[in-house]
Structure formats: C-alpha cells, structure tokens
Amino acid sequence: MSAPAASRMLQRTMRNATRGFFQAPRTRQMQTAARPFAQLQTSSTRMRMISTSNASKAGLMPDSEDPEPPAVKATEAPPAQPTELSDEAYATVAEEYMELVHEKAEQIQETREDVEVEYSAGVLSITFPPAGTYIINKQPPNKQIWLSSPISGPKRYDWVIEGEGMHQKEGGGTGEWVYLRDGTNLTELLGEELGIHIYAQAGEEMKGSTDPTE
C-alpha cells in the first residue's frame, strides 16, 4: 500500500472514532432527560383516571350512585289535654268512678277467696294474687286519680272528655281517666290486668254522664 493511501485510511478511521465518541454520550443524555417527562405523563394519566372514576359516583355514600331520600318521620298525634274541672266537678266524677271500681272489685272478691278489697278515705286497695296489691286513690289538689300497679307501675290519670269539637254537640263527648304520656286510660288497664270491666253491665248509663255539672 502506498503512503498516501495509508494516510487517507488512517484519517478516515480517526474521524469515525471521533464521531462515535461524541455522539454516544449525547444519545444517552437525551434518553436520560426523556425519562422524567415520561414519568410525569404517566402520573398525570393516573390522576385523570382516579378523578374520572370518583366523579362518576353521584351518591353521598361511597357505595351508592343514587341514594334514597331520607325517611320522613310521621307526624305524631298531639297528646290529649285534661278537661278543666272545678273542685266540685272533680269530686263528683272522681267519686263516681272510684265507687264503680270498688263495686266491681267486690264482685270479684265474692268469687275468689284470695282477693282482698278495702276502700277508705278515697284510697282503694285491691290485693290480687299472684300479681300483688293495687292502690287507686284520688288526688284532689291535682284533680287526678293515681294508680300503683305491680305490673305496669305508677301512673297519674287526668279526666279527659273527647269528642266535644267545634262541630259536635256539647255534652256529647266521652269522658275517661287518661294517662297523658301514652294516651291509655284507666278503665282499659283495669280490664286487662284485673278483669275489672267498669261499664260491662252498666251499659251507657254511667259512661254517658260525662258532664259533671249535669
């Protein structure tokens, strides 16, 4: 090989080696710089996916897309109000009722030797095995009748006349001794716990007399 040819080959080899030396690092630098950008795109895509999936649920709860409206509680009926009574009117209706209960209790006593009945000074005591002793008494200061039951406990009853509304005849209501907290009346309780049915034989004769002033 001649000297000029050998010189040209050496120069070409040197240029190729120099070009490869300077180009390789630049390629690595570009790849390294591209990695954070690719990671940023991936993170952004994930955030968009999470945001889209959360927005698709319209419900207030995580597992409900269309929640049912909250249940509305039914409006409770207003409690009964005691009927205003004068002292004389209270004494009349309370004594008549106590006498009826006393009479019915004595009728039961005649058929059962273990039942004891005592009525004195407005206090009626009924010993009724196996339940125990019932105490029913008048309370003139409060215009009430009080009951102490071994089954249902103590209760205070007010005289309530129902059915004397604006469009109803005066005096046509029905009077009962009512426990205002739950709306139950004393007559029903005595029937359930003692078998004392106040109006069973009296018919409407006593129950119809609801106006103590008559």
From TrEMBL:
<protein>
    <recommendedName>
        <fullName>ferroxidase</fullName>
        <ecNumber>1.16.3.1</ecNumber>
    </recommendedName>
</protein>
<keyword id="KW-0809">Transit peptide</keyword>
<keyword id="KW-0408">Iron</keyword>
<dbReference type="GO" id="GO:0008199">
    <property type="term" value="F:ferric iron binding"/>
</dbReference>
<dbReference type="GO" id="GO:0008198">
    <property type="term" value="F:ferrous iron binding"/>
</dbReference>
<dbReference type="GO" id="GO:0005739">
    <property type="term" value="C:mitochondrion"/>
</dbReference>
<keyword id="KW-0406">Ion transport</keyword>
<keyword id="KW-0496">Mitochondrion</keyword>
<dbReference type="GO" id="GO:0006826">
    <property type="term" value="P:iron ion transport"/>
</dbReference>
<comment type="similarity">
    <text>Belongs to the frataxin family.</text>
</comment>
<keyword id="KW-0813">Transport</keyword>
<dbReference type="InterPro" id="IPR017789">
    <property type="entry name" value="Frataxin"/>
</dbReference>
<dbReference type="GO" id="GO:0006879">
    <property type="term" value="P:intracellular iron ion homeostasis"/>
</dbReference>
<dbReference type="InterPro" id="IPR020895">
    <property type="entry name" value="Frataxin_CS"/>
</dbReference>
<dbReference type="InterPro" id="IPR036524">
    <property type="entry name" value="Frataxin/CyaY_sf"/>
</dbReference>
<dbReference type="GO" id="GO:0034986">
    <property type="term" value="F:iron chaperone activity"/>
</dbReference>
<feature type="region of interest" description="Disordered">
    <location>
        <begin position="54"/>
        <end position="85"/>
    </location>
</feature>
<keyword id="KW-0560">Oxidoreductase</keyword>
<dbReference type="GO" id="GO:0016226">
    <property type="term" value="P:iron-sulfur cluster assembly"/>
</dbReference>
<dbReference type="GO" id="GO:0004322">
    <property type="term" value="F:ferroxidase activity"/>
</dbReference>
<dbReference type="GO" id="GO:0051537">
    <property type="term" value="F:2 iron, 2 sulfur cluster binding"/>
</dbReference>
<dbReference type="InterPro" id="IPR002908">
    <property type="entry name" value="Frataxin/CyaY"/>
</dbReference>
<keyword id="KW-0410">Iron transport</keyword>
<dbReference type="Pfam" id="PF01491">
    <property type="entry name" value="Frataxin_Cyay"/>
</dbReference>
<keyword id="KW-0409">Iron storage</keyword>
